[in-house]
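REQUEST FORM: STRUCTURE PREDICTION
Request ID: SP-0412
Submitted by: Lab K.M.
Chain count: 1
Length (residues): 117
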Amino acid sequence: MINFFKKYYREIIQVFLLVIACFLLFDRLSPVEDRSKLVDYKLNQIDIKIGELKEKQKILNDSINSYQKSIEVIDTKLSDLKVERKTINNYYDEKKTTITQMDKKQVDSTFRKRYNY
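STATUS: Completed
RESULT:
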């Protein structure tokens, strides 16, 4: 038996390589399963998920817009308060300067008119 392998080892290797080549060729040329239904199903599922995410995004955008509007209202109220505060501060600054320029009797009469005492 050993003599057989020694004598025909080239032919044995050639047959072995030929069988491997035929197997690979058959594997490449055989038809592949049609997976288009599976791919279509997966794509449909992805489209459904994308649609759900778009709906959630619309809801979030609407809530963000409503919050933005309320923030703008609050900002306008704050800016109005700042203007009123400046006006009040200016009024009292003017009163302070006029009171410092008055004498005692004028200050006393001004406070009587103001506080009714």
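NOTES: The radius of gyration is 47 Å.
Reviewed by: T.R.
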